[in-house]
Design a protein that fits this description.
Helix content is about 55%, strand content about 5%. The chain contains 15 helices and 5 strands. It starts with a helix and ends in a 6-residue tail after the last helix.
Length: about 350
């Protein structure tokens, strides 16, 4: 049975990633793991957000173009099933650009600048007042992405929740202007595991910060990343009591350790002393190698058949184009725009 026929009348999910580089463990724990599970019960669209990636990468469009395939490979490798989910390319959906022009009239610059997620990203990138207009309007573009697919559920990390809130504000303004409910509101689906820190312990795991473990990381790269992880700087000897809070290794064990009792025992042992950092790191490395090894192998096999990956993108983008174009027509009619 095709994805198109099997998902009628299911709740709609819209999610996706900017195509600025291969995905990493932060993406996996923050969203990808949920997406694989939710495709069994929802109609799911995964957006390869190449147009949004240009908002701060316009100087390097080749990087953005190249990573469309890289992110698609990551999706398929972790278990996204094109018979159950639609993977689509943002820049090939013209209705999104047309809706963005309309939505920009329903939000102010001041409101965009107050968005906590935008403020954090502006600070991280050092834009200050030299902000690309496309980047400042990112929340509007995301509101378009969500509503164009008529999504009611958006799996995101906690740091993205303000984006969903702002999207719903736009929805309410458009519905109020139209005098009826043209667009549905969406809710954020936030994973139980909090934001995954980078291996350096200084910020969230991020491609741009260079502190991430890619889903395609080799066995040696995983080993090296675990070895350099921040622990407790005051835990100088194995016999010393150590601190778990703020310790990156234990943050990762909480996120990826499936044996909860074993993780809690490690924490207790570390706190009372007698457990060295390298032993804890070896436990974490075993867990990550077991998780990422099969993903890496599936990804390598898929990369040998780019024609198949392209066919998945064509099929998903065709379905997405139909859905988003219909939403554009509905919004256009609801706002009473001129017709010939």
């Amino acid at each position: 049975m095709s994805a198109e026929n099997s998902q009628e009348n299911r709740p709609v999910i819209l999610t996706g990633d900017r195509t600025t580089g291969p995905l990493h463990l932060g993406h996996y724990v923050g969203s990808l793991k949920n997406r694989v599970a939710l495709q069994e019960t929802h109609e799911q669209f995964l957006l390869l957000a190449d147009a949004q990636a240009l908002t701060d990468n316009a100087h390097d469009p080749e990087k953005v173009r190249r990573n469309v395939m890289e992110v698609a490979l990551d999706y398929l490798a972790v278990g996204i099933d094109p018979q159950k989910s639609f993977i689509c390319v943002q820049s090939l959906l013209p209705a999104l650009a047309e809706l963005t022009m309309l939505y920009l009239n329903f939000v102010t610059v001041a409101r965009l600048e107050r968005n906590p997620t935008v403020k954090d990203e502006i600070r991280l990138r050092g834009f200050e007042r030299d902000i690309p207009a496309g980047f400042l309007c990112y929340p509007v573009a995301q509101a378009v992405d969500i509503t164009a697919f008529r999504a009611t559920l958006v799996p995101v990390g906690e740091d993205q929740a303000p984006m969903i809130e702002q999207s719903n504000e736009v929805v309410r303004r458009i519905n109020r202007q139209a005098g009826r409910d043209v667009l549905p509101e969406a809710r954020a689906l936030i994973p139980n595991v909090g934001r995954l820190p980078g291996v350096d312990g200084k910020a969230k795991m991020s491609k741009s910060q260079g502190n991430a473990i890619a889903l395609s990381a080799s066995a040696d790269e995983i080993s090296q990343a675990v070895r350099m992880m921040y622990t407790d700087p005051n835990h100088l000897r194995a016999s010393d009591p150590g601190t778990v809070e703020g310790n990156v290794v234990f943050s990762y064990l909480d996120a990826f350790g499936t044996d909860r009792a074993a993780v809690e025992e490690l924490k207790a042992h570390y706190r009372r002393g007698g457990l060295g950092d390298m032993k804890v790191k070896r436990r974490l490395e075993d867990i990550l190698q077991a998780l990422l090894g099969p993903i890496r192998e599936r990804r390598a096999a898929l990369a040998q058949d780019p024609g198949y990956v392209l066919s998945v993108l064509r099929d998903g983008t065709r379905k997405a184009r139909e859905r988003t174009q219909q939403t554009f027509e509905d919004v256009r009619e609801a706002l009473g725009l001129f017709r010939l």
